[in-house]
Structures are given as C-alpha cells and as structure tokens.
Specification:
It is a single chain. This protein has a 6-stranded mixed beta sheet, covered by helices on one side. Strands 3-6-4-5 form a 4-stranded mixed beta sheet, with helices on one face. It is built from 12 helices and 12 strands. It has 2 domains: 170 residues, PurM-like, N-terminal domain (60s Ribosomal Protein L30, Chain: A); 181 residues, PurM-like C-terminal domain (Phosphoribosyl-aminoimidazole Synthetase, Chain A, domain 2), CATH 3.90.650.
Length: 357
C-alpha cells in the first residue's frame, strides 16, 4: 500500500465541513422559529417535518396543493454583487404565488440549498430571506437541506429550490371554469422584474459592467442603481390574497405572471372559449405603471412590444379575473389588504389566448 493510499482522509479533507454545517443550522434556528404556525409539530432536527391537519377537518373536501420552483439566474447577479439577503424571499414568492391562484392557502415550506463551500453567515442571509417570505405569505418554514458540493460547484456558487404545500376546500377552488365573457381583468403591480428573464437581463444590462458601475445611481432608474433595481425582491401576494378570499372576495381566477410574461401566464386562467383582451395603450404605454428597470431592460434588448409582454411581467405581478359588477368591491377588499389594483383588460369570446389592443 502506498503512502497516499494509507493516509488518513477526513470528510473535511474531501471538502465537506460538517462543523460549519452545524454552525449554519444554529444560525438559522431563530429565523425558522419565527415562521411557525400553530399546526407545526416539533422543530428543526428531525428526519421529517410534521404539520397537523386537524384544523382543516371542518372543510367539506380539503385538497392539498403543492408547488416547487427556484430563483433561476438571478442568483448569478446576487453572487456577482455578493448580496444574498433578498433571494430567499424571491424563492418563496415563486412557490407560494403559484398555489394561491387555485384559491389555496400556503401552509408550509421547505428549501434546498446547494452550495460549493458552506459558510454559515452566507447561508444564514439566504435563509433569513426565506423566513421573511414565509412570514409575508403566512406559511411555516418547517425544514430543508443544505448540501455542500465541493468539486461539483465553484466554492462561491449556490443554487436554491423551494417546495410549498397549501390547502383549499374543493368547493372554494377558483380557476378557468369560473371565468365568463364580460369579466374584467385586474392587475396587481410588480416590484420590478421579480425572478424571471434574468438570462436576458444579464446579457443586455449586466455583462461588461463592473460591480462599481452596477452600484452607480442612474437617471433612467430615477436615481436608483441597477444593482438595487435588479435585486429588489419579488412581491409576495399570497398572504394578502388568501385573507381577501377568506373575507369573501368574489374572484373567479388568478394568474401569477412569471416566466413567459403576461402572454404566456394570463392564458392559464382562461377557459378554451374565452380570450383575455389586455389594453397596453399606445405610445404612452399601458394605463398602469411599468417599473423603470423593466423599461430599461426592454430598451437595452430592443424588444418589440410583443416580445416584451412575452418576456417580462411589464409591471403586473398577478392578474385577477372578476365579474364586471364586482370590480369595485374586489378592489376595495384588496385595498384593505394593502394591495393596489388596476383594470388591465376584459374577457371576450375567443379560443383561450391573450390578445392586445
């Protein structure tokens, strides 16, 4: 046996720091505990996470609704700028706002963090953002996984995945089957680009710029820097929408505007015989406000209007479809939850597509 073959090799020698992993768990315990709902059983440390469903036994037909997503290449920008405090909220938003369009209340959330080299403080920043997202949406962060991948990922590289489970009473489910001709489409404003389209954003707005340049205020962004505008966290609508639904808001359907923009998401809330007509205005743009950072990236990429509305959310993070006679009532109920809304279109006979005027 050679000297190399007989040498004592530890897990740390292979690049995995178990002690740092334990320190990371300690660093996130308080953040995780801050999200706990009464239904959570136990805490961190078990092999599985437990959540009591006893409180939902009065539902006529409780249906569990699950979702999973990631943050995508927005993480590359966070890594470039070494700013990790907001991407956790992005992760939660991408998941919880995918289950609420069915009418589901998010119950609990799990995360998966894959990282080249584990640093407790770094992971704690990310998980604190996840915990903040869970608090905003009303769900509990009940568990997760931190996986160190030396030799597979660069030391400073990491990726995130999230998983959410919600519940809805089947008779209260909403969706395309509720939508009728004459319904009105409401929009809820986005905070910016949210978490989709970043491969294009990085190509046209980030590549070739130094970190210092990305942090410089820009007149085109109202004095905000690209770094701040591009890393602004995704708005979370779920918690407030769930409260509005529980209060009786008569919403027929919802569409979370993510990858594919308005064109390829609003159609998911439509039946096959109805079109959504979205009024995006003339030269002055739509009736709602498009965040300057979106306009900046659309101009930098020289996108046509059709391309822009199929790439970015264009200032609409969530669309709601309601009966024309209920528009005022729904907008008032949304306002009580701190959600601004605006009319962006209407439903007409068609074949399940989004069209523009």
């Amino acid at each position: 046996m050679s000297e190399e073959q007989s040498r004592h090799v530890t897990y740390a020698d292979a690049g995995v720091d178990v002690d740092e992993g334990a320190r990371a768990v300690d660093a996130i315990k308080s953040a995780v505990a801050s999200t706990a709902r009464p239904e959570v059983i136990g805490g961190l440390g078990g092999f599985g996470s437990c959540f009591s469903m006893a409180g939902f036994k009065d539902m006529e037909d409780p249906v569990l609704v699950s979702g999973t997503d990631g943050v995508g290449t927005k993480l590359a920008l966070a890594q470039l700028l070494d700013r990790h405090e907001t991407v956790g909220q992005d992760l939660v938003a991408m998941c919880v706002d995918d289950v609420v369009p069915i009418g589901a209340e998010p119950l609990f959330f799990l995360d998966y963090v894959a990282i080249g080299r584990l640093r407790a403080e770094h992971v704690a920043e990310v998980v604190k953002g996840i915990a903040e997202g869970c608090r905003l949406s009303g769900c509990s962060l009940v568990g997760g996984e931190m996986a160190e991948h030396p030799g597979v990922m660069d030391p400073d590289d990491y990726d995130l995945a999230g998983f959410v489970v919600g519940v809805v009473d089947r008779p209260k489910m909403i969706g395309p089957d509720k939508v009728c001709v004459g319904d009105v489409i409401l929009g809820l404003p986005s905070s910016g680009i949210h978490s989709n389209g970043y491969s294009l954003v990085r190509k046209v707005a980030v590549e070739g710029k130094t970190v210092s340049e990305l942090n410089e205020p820009l007149d085109e962004l109202g004095g905000e820097s690209l770094a701040d505008a591009l890393l602004r966290p995704t708005t979370i609508y779920a918690g407030r929408l769930v409260r509005a639904l529980k209060a009786g808001a008569p919403i027929h359907a919802m569409a979370h505007i993510t990858g594919g923009g308005i064109t390829e998401n609003l159609n998911r809330a439509l039946p096959k015989d109805i079109d959504a007509v979205v009024d995006r205005g003339g030269e002055g743009g739509p009736a709602w406000k498009v965040p300057p950072v979106i306009t900046y990236c659309v101009d930098a990429a020289r996108l046509t209007p059709d391309e822009a509305y199929k790439t970015f959310n264009m200032g609409v993070g969530m669309s709601l479809i309601v009966a024309a006679e209920d528009v005022g009532r729904v907008q008032e109920m949304l306002s009580q939850e701190g959600l601004e809304s605006f009319v962006m279109g209407e439903c007409v006979p068609g074949d399940g597509k989004v069209v523009y005027r």
